[in-house]
Amino acid sequence: MAYLPGQSDVPLExxxxxxxxxxxxRLLVAGVAIIVAVVFMSQNNDKVELNFLMFSVSARVWVxxxxxxxxxxxxxxxxxxxxxxxxxxxxxxx
Length: 94
Known about the structure:
Elements: H1 21-43, E1 47-52, E2 55-60, H2 61-93
Antiparallel strand pairs: 1-2
Helix pairs in contact: 1-2
C-alpha cells in the first residue's frame, strides 16, 4: 500500500507498512502457550476418564487438553470474526 498525495484519505503517519505490534504480541503469546501446552502434555500421559455433559470417554490427559486447546482456538477465532463484523457494521451505519 503506497501513499499517494491528494488521493489518500489517511495521513502518511498513520500508514505503517512495518510490523503490526498487536499481531506480533498475539503470535508471541500463542507461541508461549503452545510451548507450555507441549511440556504439560508430555508430563501428563496418564489415562483418565473425561466427562462432558452426557459424554464419557477414557483417554490420555494430553488428548483431552489438545481437544480443549483446539476447541478454544476455533471459538476464539470465531468470536473475533463476529466482533470485527460487528465493528465494521457499526462503522458503516455511522
